[in-house]
Amino acid sequence: MSPGLKKALLLPLKILLLLFTIFLGLGLGEVSFDKIREFRQLERVPRTELGAALPGLVNLSGRVVMGSNPMTSPYFKRPCVYYRFVEEVERRDSDGKTSWDTVQDLEGFRDFYLEDETGRVEVLPTKDVMFSLPAIQERQVGKRRYREWRIQPKDEVFVFGYAMLGREEIQVRFDRLGAYTRLISKYAESEERGEWALKSLLASWGGLAFLAFSVWILAWTFGIHRLLVYLGILTFLITAFLAWFGFGMMKNDLRGGYERLETVTQGADGEIARVLTKEGIDWPGLGTPLSFESAPFQRLDSKERHRLRRMRVDVALSIALFNRQREAVPERWLAPFWKIGKATQIPLPVEDREFFDREMAKFKITRVEGSWLLIIVVASGLVSILFSWLGFRQVRFKRWIENIPTSKTKGVVYGLTELAGVVGLPKGRAPLRGPISQAPCVLYRYRVQERRGSGKNAKWVTIEEQNRDLLFLAKDHEGEFSINPEGAEILSRHKSSKKEGRRRYTESRLEVGDPLYALGHAGIEPIEGTSLQLMQPEAGMPWLLSNYS
Is 379 helix (H, G, I), strand (E, B) or coil? Predict the structure, then answer.
């Protein structure tokens, strides 16, 4: 296949690969900022008692109580409101290594109640809910393994969903449309927030990596080889990527938070007014610092007073958490442009203020923890330093190629030299023959590899390697110049390969009559010492032979 035809066929493949990497980068970017928004929701919505739950996004915790439609797990036959059952079979490969293959993976759930000392709510899971819990029971019989994850009666769970007023009580539903976390978990809230934060970091890293890779493909496709142009495109694209998704996420997040505040404030104010009106008590609204322990409210029982107090404190907590996010940088600078104001805090009596301060102290900034994360950060830093060093080393190599003028064979002087011509042989010298192609050549690189192992563990192992070359000539219209190719880096269009059984044979070569590009050291020919010869330079200097231009 001619180089021109090969280039024409490669172009559409390069463009498809470019579009694919951009699509992946943007997709992962959207996922990462969705994850950020979700764990920011977890940070912004305060944990409340079940008896004080109001319509809207809720963060609840309590004990599981079986609903009216009981269920048992499929293998261990335990009563539960959720199960996941996995059956696996043990496989052994040709190397004796074992692995587990999934035979079946089943999941089921039922409606249930969540209960604490203040009341209960009904929880109505859907298939969109993410259940987060450890495996609770496992059994191995012969080469089969059976595992179950279960949420059982009396288990303590954490629920994040959308509360709505049902016929008799608050229901937590997950079928309401909107960008919010649908979560039922047996882990602590702080663990879940850290998990969501880690997922967002990994997705963001993946998106940036694919975008950076797409810039490399762009440079490769259109022949862009200026470092500053490449770095400029890369910087612009990544900055635009972060700005587009980041500002969009912050804007939607702040607006969603403000809308939730309005819902929570109206819900709490309406519920308090409903209860007090029923008892014939005037309610001036959440803007009053009246204590629920004062005289007008004594006709309510203590449990009802506590419930109303908790509703008001929860509203104050929601406002404080929203304002904390809005006043962070850069949200505080951007919120005025989006016309999202700071929420006005409601006044609280002294006893409620103390409780409010204690609850606010529990809300910490989400941190991703784990020693392995530090290892990843350090390893990534070392890898980035290594590849940056290699990259700039190649830039120096490229600059040599660009800045050293091409010499004619009769004009070569001592030192670093660039030659262009045709590969030739001295008179009376027979060429080498490629082990696979049998083509006449002045050098070849030959490798024999064997495939060992099987399945995922299979790999190619080099069992033989030959590097053969001989002195040859670079010829142009002015004359010829001797070249000793020992130690040179070879870039060749001529490659041959074949496969026999589990072995693979590959060959690359410079053929007699090939166009030649050479960059190396012109030094004194070591035998007679009367002429110059192109040879291996000192360490760190370029030594390249190629039949590319």
Answer: helix
Work out the angle at residue 76's Cα, subtended by the Cα atoms of residues 157 and 191, and round it to the nearest 5 degrees. Answer: 25
DSSP bridge partners of 499: 504
- What is the DSSP track for 316-343? HHHHHHHHHHHTSTTHHHHTTTTT-PPP
Tokens representing residue 339 in the block? 């016309």
Q: Identify the burial level of 128 via C-beta atoms within 10 angstroms of its C-beta, where 0-12 means exposed, 13-18 middle and 19 or more buried.
A: exposed
- What are the pLDDT tens digits along the chain (549 aa)? 565 666 667 788 888 888 899 898 888 888 888 877 777 777 788 889 999 998 888 999 999 999 888 899 999 999 999 999 999 999 887 666 788 899 999 999 999 999 999 999 999 999 999 999 998 999 999 999 999 999 999 999 999 999 988 766 789 999 988 778 899 999 987 778 777 777 788 888 888 889 889 998 988 888 887 878 888 998 998 899 888 888 988 898 899 889 889 988 998 999 899 889 988 888 888 888 888 888 888 888 888 889 999 999 999 999 998 999 899 888 999 999 999 999 999 999 988 898 898 888 877 666 666 666 678 788 888 988 998 888 887 888 888 888 888 899 898 899 999 999 999 999 889 999 999 999 999 999 999 999 887 766 778 899 999 999 999 999 999 999 999 999 999 999 999 999 998 899 999 999 999 999 999 999 998 888 888 999 999 887 889 999 988
d(CA 385, CA 203): 22
Sign of the torsion angle spanned by Cα atoms 196, 200, 205, 211: positive
Nearest by Cα to 115 from 180, 177, 53, 50: 50
Peptide bond into 330 cis (omega under 30): yes
CA gap 50, 120 in Å, rounded:
6
Q: Are 137 and 124 in contact (CB under 8 A)?
A: no
| Other C-beta atoms lying within 10 Å of the C-beta of residue 85 | 19
Sign of CA dihedral 196, 200, 203, 209: negative
Distance CA 55, CA 60 (A): 12
CA separation, residue 225 to residues 17, 79, 126 (Å): 19, 65, 53
- Give the bridge partners for 479, in sequence order: 476
**Residue found under tokens 């393994």:** 145
- Closest of 145, 16, 151 to residue 86, by C-alpha: 145
Q: Would you give the DSSP letter of residue 91?
A: E
Task: Give the DSSP letter of residue 70.
Answer: -
Distance CA 481, CA 418 (A): 12
* HSE-CB of 502 using CA atoms within 13 angstroms: 11
DSSP type of residue 178: S
Q: Find out whether 394 and 509 touch, Cβ atoms under 8 Å.
A: no
Contacts of 532 (CB under 8 A, 6+ apart): 412, 413, 414, 481, 482, 522, 523, 524, 525
Length of the chain: 549
Q: Which residue has the tokens 């498809």?
A: 16
Q: What are phi and psi of 433, to 5 degrees?
A: -125, 130
For residue 151, give the amino acid letter: I
